[in-house]
């Protein structure tokens, strides 16, 4: 994650999101949310939109209530003990974590030494996800290790993920391996270009192992976002958004045209989720979430 181009993790960002008000379980919807819900209630568009949990410090039940009023259909990046709360709210869990680890991003399938731990976590989580109706589970390529170049890392990822792909298919789960930037936020991350991720996906060749294409990260690393998505959609299972630079709102304050990107994704008949993953700068973060929803309603 980044704040004004200074790197930080998702965990660190949680402590830095400024909110002017506390959101109790009985709080009324803010005026911006009420107005948006009234005018956009029947116009949710062709994309299923979600919000990453870490972007808000509102209690999870209240977050779900307010997101549902805006038009969101899911919450992203949740641990197994949070899934029931979201399901009970009438929303979906668009992406689940298989484990709580401080090294979740850096420990990936690029290193065979990690495979036993990662496979055990996924073997445990996949049946739980099926039971909870969670269809996507995240995993990582991992940070570079001495002696493992990109070609070897691709082979290692193919070998490890191929072992778990059949269980994912048996349970109707898609494992989503995230592409991240190594320039600003995640120095040393090996899966930092679309070509790397696509090479892994082609090697596995399973509909149950896909890329998590983070638009923010890939804009930083390579740009040419719409063309890249069009050329590689068959390998992509999930999207994340965020404004470049700074990972804030996806409006006119940053360099990407997210409405055009969303339209391009929808025109490809994408059936997965596009999850917003940015740090709001407004005093009322839900105004930013509602704005992002509207921008990507196509």
Task: Indicate the proportion of strand residues.
Answer: 5-15%
Amount of helix: 25-40%
Question: Strand arrangement, largest sheet?
Answer: 5-4-3-10-9-8-7-6
Structural class assignment: alpha/beta
Largest sheet report:
8 strands, parallel
Low-confidence stretches: 1-9, 11-28, 38-42
Rg result: 18 Å
N-to-C CA distance: 27 Å
Q: What are the secondary-structure elements, in order, as H or E?
A: EEHHEHEHEHEHEHEHHEHEH
Can you tell me the overall shape? globular
Q: How large is the count of helical segments?
A: 11
| DSSP strand tally | 10
Mean pLDDT: 90
Model description:
- 40% of the residues lie in helices and 13% in strands.
- With 298 residues, it is α/β, with parallel strands linked by helices.
- The chain is globular.
Q: What is the strand and helix layout of this fold?
A:
Layout: E1 2-3, E2 6-7, H1 10-14, H2 31-40, E3 48-52, H3 60-70, E4 74-76, H4 83-89, E5 92-93, H5 115-132, E6 136-140, H6 150-170, E7 174-178, H7 194-204, E8 209-214, H8 215-221, H9 225-232, E9 236-241, H10 258-267, E10 273-276, H11 285-295
Parallel strand pairs: 3-4, 3-10, 4-5, 6-7, 7-8, 8-9, 9-10
Antiparallel strand pairs: 1-2
Concise overview:
The chain is α/β, with parallel strands linked by helices and 298 residues long. 40% of the residues lie in helices and 13% in strands.
């Amino acid at each position: 994650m980044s704040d004004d181009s200074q790197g930080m993790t998702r965990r660190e960002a949680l402590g830095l999101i400024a909110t002017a008000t506390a959101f109790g379980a009985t709080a009324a919807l803010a005026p911006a949310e009420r107005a948006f819900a009234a005018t956009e209630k029947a116009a949710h568009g062709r994309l299923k939109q979600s919000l990453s949990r870490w972007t808000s410090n509102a209690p999870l039940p209240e977050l779900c209530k307010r997101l549902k009023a805006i038009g969101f259909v899911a919450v992203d990046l949740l641990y197994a003990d949070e899934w029931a709360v979201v399901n009970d709210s009438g929303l979906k869990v668009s992406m689940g974590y298989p484990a709580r680890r401080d090294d979740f991003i850096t420990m990936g399938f690029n290193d065979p030494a990690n495979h036993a731990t990662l496979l055990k976590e996924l073997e445990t989580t996949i049946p739980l996800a099926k039971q909870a109706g969670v269809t996507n589970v995240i995993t990582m390529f991992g940070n570079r290790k001495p002696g493992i170049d990109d070609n070897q890392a691709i082979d290692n990822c193919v070998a490890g993920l191929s072992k778990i792909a059949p269980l994912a298919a048996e349970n109707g789960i898609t494992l989503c391996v995230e592409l991240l930037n190594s320039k600003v936020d995640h120095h040393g991350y090996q899966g930092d270009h679309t070509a790397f991720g696509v090479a892994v996906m082609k090697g596995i060749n399973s509909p149950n192992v896909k890329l998590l294409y983070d638009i923010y990260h890939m804009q930083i690393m390579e740009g040419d976002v719409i063309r890249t998505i069009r050329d590689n959609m068959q390998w992509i299972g999930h999207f994340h958004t965020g404004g470049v630079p700074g990972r804030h709102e996806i409006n006119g304050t940053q360099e990407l045209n997210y409405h055009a990107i969303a339209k391009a994704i929808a025109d490809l008949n994408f059936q997965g989720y596009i999850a917003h993953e940015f740090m709001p700068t407004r005093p009322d973060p839900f105004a930013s979430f509602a704005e992002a929803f509207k921008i990507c309603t196509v």
